[in-house]
Each structure stands twice: as structure tokens, then as C-alpha cells.
Amino acid sequence: MSVRVQDAPFDMGAEVEAFTAASKGAGAVVTFSGLVRDEAGTLTAMEIEHYPGMTEKALEKIRAEAVERWSLTDAMIIHRFGPMKPGDQIMMVATAARHRGDAFAAAEFLMDYLKSRAPFWKKEFGKDGDSWVAAKDEDEAALNRW
Questions:
Q1: Calpha distance 72→95 (Å, rounded)
Q2: Is the pLDDT reported for residue 117 higher than 80?
């Protein structure tokens, strides 16, 4: 399965190596990893929630769309849930295609989807209290370009 939703951290190097080795016929592999960031310097933790089953189904659907749209040889999505600290990896996307343009475009499409529409809910905990993370207009605009 090329979609994983998990609470455990993952080893990006090992994931990239395995993905690349399995990507027969590809001339390009693009990877991206998203991290918990602390822009204001006040974040102590973030917790991500999801609905098991529903989330995986949504990610599998968008992965399949990317594979078809850009004729990918493969694509992978890993997304974590549960508590995390600043600097922890939240997610990873990998795409493989015959040519780099398709691999880059598909990876960017998947990242835009994960940022704005994937069924995850993020709560930030900081020195000044806690709050749910609201959707940002710029994230929606990024997805709308596709």
C-alpha cells in the first residue's frame, strides 16, 4: 500500500531508498517532508487527529488521481497523527515518473491537497494556550490552481 497514516515517526532516508528501489521505469523521483514549525517561537506541541478509515480512503483517492493525471510510475503518502513537537516530521510525499516535470508537479499537487483538504485536524499547544489550526486562504488558493 502506498498510503500510510501512522502515529510513529518514520525514517525518511529509508523510505526514500525503498520507494526509489521499487520505482521501476522512473527517470525521476521527487520527495518532500513536512515538519512541525514554530513560526512565533511559542509552540510547545501539535496534535493531529483523524478518522481512521475515512482518512486513508481520501488519501488513496488523491494518490490515484495524481498517478493517473501525471502518468506516474508510483506515488507514496505518509502522514502522521497524534502528538508531535516542533521539528518533528508530519508527512512525506514521494512521486516517481519517467520525467522530472511530472514528478515535481504531482508532488506539489499532493502537498497542496494534504495542506488544505486532507481530513486531518491540527491543534497547537503553546505558551499562550491552545487552539485549533484554521485553514488558510493561501493554502486553498494553492490547491485551486490544479
A1: 7
A2: yes
Number of domains the chain is built from? 1
Q: How many C-beta atoms surround the C-beta of residue 68 within 10 A?
A: 9
Give the whole-number percent of the chain exceeding pLDDT 70.
99
User: In 3D, which of 61, 48, 56 has the Cα closest to residue 120?
Assistant: 48
What's the pTM value of the predicted model, to 2 decimals? 0.93
Residue among 135, 83, 92 at smallest CA distance from 2: 92
* Phi, psi torsion values for 37, nearest 5 degrees: -115, 150
Query: Which CATH number fits the domain that encloses residue 101?
Result: 3.90.1170.40
Is the per-residue pLDDT at 1 higher than 80? no
Q: With bands split at pLDDT 50, 70 and 90, how would you rate the model's confidence at 138?
A: confident
Q: Is the pLDDT of residue 32 over 90?
A: yes
Whether residue 132 contacts residue 46, with contact meaning beta carbons closer than 8 Å, is answered with no
C-alpha–C-alpha distance, residues 138 and 116, integer Å: 9
Task: Show the domain range for 83.
Answer: 3-144
